[in-house]
Predict the 3D structure of the following.
Amino acid sequence: MKFLADENFPMPSVRLLQSLGYDTKHVGMMAAGISDEEVVAMANREGRTLLTFDGDLGALAFAHGIHADAGIVYFRLTHYSPEAPGRMLSDYLTAHPRGELAGRMTVFDPPRVRQRLFE
C-alpha cells in the first residue's frame, strides 16, 4: 500500500509506516507549500492514499469533486503522540486486511473510524 502524507502529518508516523513496510512519502520533504489541489494531484499521479489532518480536503472532495482516487484518510485527533496516527492506521489495516481505502474518505475520530464514498 502506498501513502502520501500531507505536510501536517507527523514525521514520526511517516517513519513508523515506512518501518512497517508501507511505501510512504511526505509532501513536506518533496514539495513543501503546495496547494491542497496540488497535493491531491500528486497523490493521484503516484497512486497514493492521502494521509492528512486537513479537514479542508474533505470539503474539496465532496463539495468540488477533487479527491485522491486511492482515498483520503483524515485524522480528527486533538491530543496524540507523534506516532499515534501511524499506529492507528497500521492497527486498522491489520484488523481489516480487506479494508478498502480507495474511492472514499476514511475518518479516524477515536474511538470511531468512519468511511464515506466519493461520488
